[in-house]
Design goal:
This protein is an alpha/beta fold. It is built from 14 helices and 15 strands.
């Protein structure tokens, strides 16, 4: 009878008394929270002992306490004169998984704190206690973080770029890309961040070696930032999922976007002057374009302002002329062999309503389809170019300043077509 009495005494009295001791230490003693946690018995340590039957009763009392787990202030929010955290209940806590360290999630901690989320990091033996009770708890996950951030943009929008990238990497760490819509953490080349949107909205592109960023001047707002290589690698996977507006650049998109890059002032003109000092459009782009387009179909750019004129290399010229790529344009293209054979006629040709381009001006100005859009410096080519010039404006021929001797030389040249 005494033994039974002692057993029930232990079962009914020890758990609430021990829980009261922990509550007293929490409320009255200014002990570090880690010391308080160490007062919890470890499920594994007491397994097989006479204390094991007491654990369930003790833990049930502890988790009903409204001041039982510690949530710390983020380092960025903490003040030396203020409390560095507070004791809260299990139901109000969001638990950091054992596989994570709160110290390595500083921006996640800071942003969620501003959203009202109280993160709690407890030792493994307290996780085991909660598991023993099959206690329903809230765990920190990328999905929870995404939902909280989408609901309260202000909690992270003022963070610097590095911190936003840290947030983004955590939100993408579960490889769940269908729940990004509305999250304003997509980094752009112009150093801004925008929201992820559904596929089908204005695309945001990822460049690669096949489609270098230099092909698309003044379009930084349409490209994922290349400054953060880790994020870029993950965002390529986001693009492959087709869940958002992020896309890896491909040929159809590149052709479309290149055509959108030209200044609006050029739309109604057949020929423009490009200056190296002009901020509207980089002069070096034409070299980049012709180097790139050699491996693609040139006809995709028919009608576009991509054909540089003149004999001086564009890399040195302060200004140069550019005309549209057209199969019926009056453009003569000079090569080294043509110059050797007919170079003495250039002073005459420059007085005619012709446009002169040269492969000598830029070694990249080559393409297997180029002859479809320019004429060679041959008698037939000169005549074709003159005919095209007449089609543009017949009065051009009447405004030439050829001397009688120059006119005779031109007639001699063109007469070779009948020989």
């Amino acid at each position: 009878m005494a033994a039974e009495w002692n057993k029930f005494l232990v079962m009914d009295v020890v758990p609430p008394c021990y829980a009261l001791l922990i509550r007293y230490a929490t409320d009255q003693l200014e002990m570090p929270h880690t010391h308080i946690y160490n007062m919890w018995p470890d499920v594994e340590a007491v397994k097989g002992t006479e204390w094991e039957p007491l654990l369930t009763s003790l833990f049930k009392i502890l988790i009903t306490n409204d001041r039982i787990v510690w949530t710390s202030m983020p380092a960025s929010e903490a003040s030396p004169s203020a409390m560095q955290g507070e004791w809260i209940s299990v139901k109000d806590a969001t638990f950091v998984p054992q596989t994570e360290k709160l110290s390595q999630l500083s921006q996640v901690h800071s942003s969620l704190h501003r959203c009202g989320v109280k993160l709690v990091e407890v030792p493994a033996f307290i996780h085991r206690a909660l598991k023993l009770l099959r206690c329903s708890i809230t765990n920190l996950t990328p999905n929870l973080t995404r939902e909280k951030l989408k609901a309260t943009h202000s909690c992270y929008e003022k963070a610097d770029n590095v911190k936003k990238i840290e947030l983004l990497m955590y939100c993408l760490s579960d490889n769940s890309y269908n729940n990004l819509i509305g999250l304003r953490l997509l980094p752009l080349e112009n150093n801004s961040f925008i929201a992820f949107l559904n596929n089908g909205k204005q695309p945001i592109y990822i460049c690669n070696s096949a489609f270098p960023k230099d092909l698309f001047p003044n379009k930084d707002h349409l490209f994922v930032s290349s400054q953060h290589t880790d994020a870029l690698t993950v965002l390529e996977k986001v693009a492959s999922s087709n869940k958002t507006q992020v896309q890896v650049m491909d040929l159809p998109s590149a052709v479309k976007l290149i055509k959108e890059c030209f200044p609006s002032q050029w739309q109604q003109q057949q020929q423009v002057t490009v200056s190296r000092a002009d901020p509207l459009f980089p002069a070096a782009w034409f070299t980049t374009f012709w180097k790139w387009v050699q491996q693609y179909d040139l006809s995709q750019f028919a009608g576009e302002m991509v054909l540089p004129l003149g004999r001086e290399p564009t890399s040195r010229a302060p200004t140069f002329q550019v005309t549209r790529l057209s199969s019926d344009s009056p453009v003569l293209c000079l090569t080294y062999n043509d110059t050797v054979s007919y170079g003495h006629l250039l002073p005459i040709l420059q007085k005619l309503p012709l446009k002169i381009a040269s492969t000598e001006a830029d070694p990249n100005f080559l393409h297997t389809q180029l002859d479809s859009y320019v004429k060679r410096l041959t008698p037939a080519g000169i005549l074709d170019a003159l005919c095209n010039s007449c089609n543009e404006n017949f009065s051009h021929l009447h405004s030439t300043n050829l001397t009688s001797d120059e006119a005779r030389q031109l007639c001699v040249l063109l007469s070779q077509l009948t020989q």
